[in-house]
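Key idea: predict the complex, not the pieces.
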Amino acid sequence: AQTVTQSQPEMSVQEAETVTLSCTYDTSESDYYLFWYKQPPSRQMILVIRQEAYKQQNATENRFSVNFQKAAKSFSLKISDSQLGDAAMYFCAYRSAISGAGSYQLTFGKGTKLSVIP
Amino acid sequence: DTEVTQTPKHLVMGMTNKKSLKCEQHMGHRAMYWYKQKAKKPPELMFVYSYEKLSINESVPSRFSPECPNSSLLNLHLHALQPEDSALYLCASSLPYSNQPQHFGDGTRLSIL
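Result:
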């Protein structure tokens, strides 16, 4: 079974500064997908960024980028130029690429609560 | 605006009541999911429907009964719930067997008296 670990229960960052959220995972599979989801107090889980394991290039989405280290099974999220609206719970998630029931299941980490200080 | 719509936003019910949660999407997704989320915890998968057929049931108690009447609609029927069932219930949808992510609704906040 896969596991996802987020070792930072809470983080804070000054507005306009950069912050990195950590995520490690454990799997025996070679092909899979990794995601970062954001959940503000409004409750909706919002996709921030995704990475396919077979791609060596790190994914980027505007101010959000990842550092994907497949050998180390690490998938950290960097938020640049932090904004007040970035304050939320961030979940790292893993999904198998193997066809079948496993491809439906998202394995979530416990989450990191990010606070943005004005 | 979310592309996955859940109703109601909030629900308070007694342990003897019967109620239903509704989820709707019009993105052409053929996989739909129910999750339960307790405060400060990640979502826990309950059920998965693929092409309107139940694909995964994560050993959920029978007081929760899912239904997928068509490819756009997913219901969760509730009966004789317990106080520990109070939680945020999230619906999600995705393209099945693809690298596309799950899209989540805003959730229904359920309180059991």
